Amino acid sequence: MAAAVPLSTAAAPWLSNGPASSPPRVRLLIGGEFVESRADEHVDVTNPATQEVVSRIPLTTADEFRAAVDAARTAFPGWRGTPVTTRQRVMFKFQELIRANMDKLAENITTEQGKTLKDAWGDVFRGLEVVEHACGMGTLQMGEYVSNISNGIDTFSIREPLGVCAGICPFNFPAMIPLWMFPIAVTCGNTFVLKPSEKDPGAAMMLAELAMEAGLPKGVLNIVHGTHDVVNNICDDEDIKAVSFVGSNTAGMHIYSRASATGKRVQCNMGAKNHAIILPDADRDATLNALIAAGFGAAGQRCMALSTAVFVGGSESWEDELVKRASGLVVNSGMVNDADLGPVISRQAKDRICKLVQNGVDSGARLLLDGRDIVVPQFEDGNFVGPTLLADVKSDMECYKEEIFGPVLLLMKAESLDDAIQIVNRNKYGNGASIFTTSGISARKFQTDIEAGQVGINVPIPVPLPFFSFTGSKASFAGDLNFYGKAGVQFFTQIKTITQQWKESPAQRVSLSMPTSQ
Ligand code: NAD
């Protein structure tokens, strides 16, 4: 068995030792202090490769939740009044501290979430890029100015912070997704209440510790733990002005309607079924590698995973090579050096994946490669699913309609590019889609006609860097301002437009008519 990361309380102020032989307890962060919850109920954080209980999160009580929001509300006026250059400098220091702690963060992610160390490192790095972007907030938050719109009158707009904002995170990117949220929010001048996933809170806690070391004042970032109840408290709270959510559609749509009902801004990034269209003229080797990497990387537990490959003309001529390359992947604990994919997050997740694969088989799909019964030596208790390939998948099959969120690649057939585009567009999700072709004309048609928010051309669904935004669409997103980039800054700020008049004017008669520009 792989050794768990040592989580001693001396090294981690966000953990307390439980009673003898019970796992350490994850603390709350309220008003700049890591405090132990008084909650009676807890949820175990389990290493998916071993079933070892790594730690335990509390179901934050209503009073503790109130204290976290109060701390954020109290910190707001001072932080809002802090110059943006000072707020940026905290982010400069924060990015430096994240870089210095990349390995520690990655080890924690692999222990709690299961992905390979290399992939966990990427999880942190893609979040770090958002912190780097936040270092330019002075420019990003700039308003506009038009001088002399009328005689002696100027108009300008400024972007002001909203107040207390909140973030609710999924399990699959324990570092990147918290970093999509609070760095942009707080550098805009907001204060924040973060709820990490109950399945892997460690990276968020470590990041909060680093953010405070970087100089984030007390109360600017607060952390609560839990599941439905604390999420509902966030949705209902009158002091919280905006909610960022990333996770499943079930939770996302509930949060979208409940939080909007109290007048909050809400942005929800949700589930996906990302397709690749493969034309017969595609570069064979590069396409095969892209399908394998994007289909099975992170054990398919990425919202941008490629889960469906639509082959124009049929998949038959690609199948042997896909099976060969997928079979060559190493499934093991993420702590093991040569592992290509680790376990899925829980036993329930594994059961659900296996059921959907079986449903495909029962509905007539051809099982080219079956990873359901894989046993990983020394990690026999892990939630492992090996790479799985299902061919002849049809749009009405459950395995196609549902997001599988596991290492399963579905192969479909289309008669033409038009037919393939129609298949993709009929799917309710719209996170990403890509095409593999050497024809510029086909690629251009695809980029124009495809209904997906993030489009790859010979790229297996790119997650945009932070100067763009993460632009999922259709059922993959609810709200109108996306995460990070320009839209992210707009989400976390309220625009104010000011018109001023400074002129020496001779006395005029009062006029009640509509002012017009003179
Ligand atoms: P999840 O919806 O189960 O959990 C996400 C968060 O919501 C957690 O903090 C959880 O405590 C809370 N939650 C869950 N159910 C709830 C409910 N009924 N009421 C209130 N709160 C609830 O999602 P997950 O399993 O952690 O993450 C996987 C999902 O996230 C996948 O669907 C994946 O596609 C999606 N995801 C999307 C993106 C994106 O950018 N589009 C990125 C990452 C993950």
TrEMBL record:
<dbReference type="GO" id="GO:0005739">
    <property type="term" value="C:mitochondrion"/>
</dbReference>
<dbReference type="InterPro" id="IPR015590">
    <property type="entry name" value="Aldehyde_DH_dom"/>
</dbReference>
<dbReference type="InterPro" id="IPR016161">
    <property type="entry name" value="Ald_DH/histidinol_DH"/>
</dbReference>
<keyword id="KW-0560">Oxidoreductase</keyword>
<dbReference type="Pfam" id="PF00171">
    <property type="entry name" value="Aldedh"/>
</dbReference>
<dbReference type="InterPro" id="IPR010061">
    <property type="entry name" value="MeMal-semiAld_DH"/>
</dbReference>
<dbReference type="InterPro" id="IPR016160">
    <property type="entry name" value="Ald_DH_CS_CYS"/>
</dbReference>
<keyword id="KW-0520">NAD</keyword>
<feature type="domain" description="Aldehyde dehydrogenase">
    <location>
        <begin position="34"/>
        <end position="498"/>
    </location>
</feature>
<comment type="similarity">
    <text>Belongs to the aldehyde dehydrogenase family.</text>
</comment>
<dbReference type="InterPro" id="IPR016162">
    <property type="entry name" value="Ald_DH_N"/>
</dbReference>
<dbReference type="GO" id="GO:0006210">
    <property type="term" value="P:thymine catabolic process"/>
</dbReference>
<dbReference type="GO" id="GO:0004491">
    <property type="term" value="F:methylmalonate-semialdehyde dehydrogenase (acylating, NAD) activity"/>
</dbReference>
<dbReference type="InterPro" id="IPR016163">
    <property type="entry name" value="Ald_DH_C"/>
</dbReference>
<protein>
    <recommendedName>
        <fullName>methylmalonate-semialdehyde dehydrogenase (CoA acylating)</fullName>
        <ecNumber>1.2.1.27</ecNumber>
    </recommendedName>
</protein>
<dbReference type="GO" id="GO:0006574">
    <property type="term" value="P:L-valine catabolic process"/>
</dbReference>
